[in-house]
């Protein structure tokens, strides 16, 4: 007989039965875990007791050092199938360490390694994935004689787990079957009316017939739900009518908005055209500014050249004029036969002084012109050559010592691998090193008692580097006076020097910068402070770098 429920609340009573079943299943699980825990505790206790018995019976064997007797006694454990392995370790007081004493292995059990490192720390029995183990110290009158290490089988523990799993599976299966049967009954008694309601709602939604209504139901809750849904359908129908009116108004508004968008798009296009023209004009002005900057730099360079050359040339012209006047006076007095020996000697002295002055200034002019010509990058027409870097440094340093006698008082050193070969432009590299050393000799060691210049050569590479992407880093350091802070930002500009009165033209570091940037295609970094020395880090690419084979 079909049971007709009049309320969902009564239907929930049946759910209590299912919940009760679940609780019973959980209770069984708790009891199962308790059973497993008891089994484990019993195994650990039994292993500890066996270990204690073996330890107590092995005391005399330890004291009298009778390993053979201990081995025979341990064979009696073959009647105890739970015992798998036994190791006896005797404490050697002479070496203060443990030594293997005797052992027992059950049938079909392979020997195990000694456990010196474990027996002293195994204070309580413990269970592992494959066995139960325990270690008991052996004392005689509070003196440690050794340890008894025991392994027993965990078969009872594994069988307990299988038993619990079987019982739990049976109970869970029974509960699942019961729950399934109960769900069938609930579905037949409660969900069938709900299915009918869902089908009606799906039909209304599919056909969009929101003026339809759901029928009445026997269940009070479903009947109230149907009345509420019918009221919702009525409101949806009203909303749809209002929505249709709103869509009509929105369509008219969209048409108007599209017209406005087209107008604004046209205005935006015109604005973009104007911006494009303005950008082209800006690029043209930028090109003109670059050319103007180049002309300004050229004017500064020409002005500097004129200023530097003008002084020695002017002095030479002045001295030449004085020589001409003196020579004219000398000729006149000689023609009038009024030239005395004293006047002749005075004029000769004047000639020597002025000629010496002319010679010095012409030499100064020649040096300046030579320095200016070094600024031209066209002179470095060398092709890349493979150089042995250590030998190259020896040649450069020896050349520097030959040209600059003051290097005798300066420690010049370098750190370079003996087997390193690089392919680069040797001429510009030689010029960079020479200019750095010459600049240091002229500016760096005014207040330094033990001057020192050091070069460090290092080949930089990465995991993705190839022969064409390697870089050589050359680091120059000295312990000199450093560079004043006001000159740091302009030290690489032409004609910048702190010793112009001593004959410096301010072109050395400018030449170094041009060589590194334009010829070697690298970059240079400067670190310096007044009184703290100077450091130049120069990095430039090299090709086909390799080391000599041993």
UniProtKB/TrEMBL annotation:
<dbReference type="InterPro" id="IPR003594">
    <property type="entry name" value="HATPase_dom"/>
</dbReference>
<keyword id="KW-0597">Phosphoprotein</keyword>
<dbReference type="Pfam" id="PF00672">
    <property type="entry name" value="HAMP"/>
</dbReference>
<dbReference type="GO" id="GO:0004673">
    <property type="term" value="F:protein histidine kinase activity"/>
</dbReference>
<dbReference type="GO" id="GO:0016020">
    <property type="term" value="C:membrane"/>
</dbReference>
<keyword id="KW-0808">Transferase</keyword>
<keyword id="KW-0418">Kinase</keyword>
<protein>
    <recommendedName>
        <fullName>histidine kinase</fullName>
        <ecNumber>2.7.13.3</ecNumber>
    </recommendedName>
</protein>
<keyword id="KW-1133">Transmembrane helix</keyword>
<feature type="domain" description="Histidine kinase">
    <location>
        <begin position="304"/>
        <end position="544"/>
    </location>
</feature>
<feature type="transmembrane region" description="Helical">
    <location>
        <begin position="12"/>
        <end position="36"/>
    </location>
</feature>
<feature type="domain" description="HAMP">
    <location>
        <begin position="188"/>
        <end position="241"/>
    </location>
</feature>
<keyword id="KW-0812">Transmembrane</keyword>
<dbReference type="InterPro" id="IPR005467">
    <property type="entry name" value="His_kinase_dom"/>
</dbReference>
<feature type="transmembrane region" description="Helical">
    <location>
        <begin position="162"/>
        <end position="186"/>
    </location>
</feature>
<keyword id="KW-0175">Coiled coil</keyword>
<dbReference type="InterPro" id="IPR036890">
    <property type="entry name" value="HATPase_C_sf"/>
</dbReference>
<dbReference type="InterPro" id="IPR003660">
    <property type="entry name" value="HAMP_dom"/>
</dbReference>
<feature type="coiled-coil region">
    <location>
        <begin position="236"/>
        <end position="295"/>
    </location>
</feature>
<dbReference type="GO" id="GO:0007165">
    <property type="term" value="P:signal transduction"/>
</dbReference>
<dbReference type="Pfam" id="PF02518">
    <property type="entry name" value="HATPase_c"/>
</dbReference>
<keyword id="KW-0472">Membrane</keyword>
<dbReference type="InterPro" id="IPR004358">
    <property type="entry name" value="Sig_transdc_His_kin-like_C"/>
</dbReference>
């Amino acid at each position: 007989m079909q049971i007709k429920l009049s309320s969902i609340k009564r239907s929930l009573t049946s759910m209590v039965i299912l919940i009760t079943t679940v609780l019973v299943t959980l209770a069984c699980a708790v009891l199962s875990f308790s059973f497993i825990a008891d089994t484990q505790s019993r195994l650990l206790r039994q292993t500890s007791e066996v270990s204690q018995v073996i330890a107590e019976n092995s005391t005399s064997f330890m004291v009298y050092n009778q390993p053979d007797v201990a081995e025979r006694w341990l064979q009696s454990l073959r009647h105890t199938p739970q015992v798998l392995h036994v190791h006896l370790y005797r404490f050697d007081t002479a070496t203060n360490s443990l030594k293997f004493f005797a052992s027992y292995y059950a049938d079909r059990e392979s020997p195990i390694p000694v456990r010196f490192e474990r027996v002293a720390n195994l204070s309580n029995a413990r269970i592992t994935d494959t066995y139960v183990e325990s270690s008991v110290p052996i004392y005689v009158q509070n003196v440690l004689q050794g340890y008894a290490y025991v392994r027993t089988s965990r078969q009872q523990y594994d069988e307990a787990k299988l038993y619990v799993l079987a019982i739990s599976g049976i109970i869970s299966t029974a509960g699942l079957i019961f729950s399934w049967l109960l769900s069938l009954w609930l579905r037949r008694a409660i969900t069938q009316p709900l299915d009918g309601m869902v089908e009606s709602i799906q039909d209304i939604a599919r056909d969009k017939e929101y003026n339809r209504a759901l029928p009445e139901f026997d269940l009070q809750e479903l009947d109230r739900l149907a009345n509420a849904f019918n009221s919702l359908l009525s409101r949806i129908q009203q909303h749809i009518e209002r929505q249709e009116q709103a869509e009509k108004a929105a369509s008219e508004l969209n048409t108007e908005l599209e017209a406005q968008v087209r107008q604004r798009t046209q205005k935006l296009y015109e604005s973009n055209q104007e911006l494009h023209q303005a950008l082209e004009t800006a690029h043209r002005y930028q090109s003109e500014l670059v050319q103007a900057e180049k002309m300004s730099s050229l004017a500064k360079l020409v002005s500097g050249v004129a200023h530097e050359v003008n002084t020695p040339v002017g002095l030479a012209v002045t001295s030449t004029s004085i020589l001409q006047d003196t020579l004219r006076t000398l000729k006149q007095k000689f023609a009038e036969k009024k030239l005395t020996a004293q006047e002749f000697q005075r004029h000769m002295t004047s000639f020597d002084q002025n000629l010496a002055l002319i010679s010095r200034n012409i030499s100064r002019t020649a040096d300046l012109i030579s320095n200016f010509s070094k600024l031209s990058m066209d002179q470095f027409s060398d092709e890349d050559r493979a150089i042995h870097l250590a030998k190259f440094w020896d040649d450069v340093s020896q050349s520097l010592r030959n040209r600059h006698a003051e290097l005798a008082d300066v420690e010049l050193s370098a750190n370079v691998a003996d087997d390193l070969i690089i392919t680069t432009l040797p001429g510009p590299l030689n010029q960079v090193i020479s200019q750095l050393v010459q600049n240091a000799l002229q500016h760096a060691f005014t207040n330094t008692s033990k001057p020192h210049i050091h070069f460090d050569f290092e080949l930089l590479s990465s995991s993705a580097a190839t022969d064409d992407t390697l870089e050589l880093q050359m680091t120059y350091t000295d312990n000199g006076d450093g560079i004043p802070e006001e000159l740091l930002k302009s030290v690489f500009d032409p004609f910048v020097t702190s010793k112009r009165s001593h004959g410096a033209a301010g072109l050395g570091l400018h030449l170094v910068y041009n060589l590194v940037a334009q010829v070697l295609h690298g970059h240079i970094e400067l670190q310096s402070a007044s009184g703290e020395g100077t450091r130049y880090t120069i990095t430039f690419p090299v090709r086909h770098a390799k080391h000599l084979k041993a």
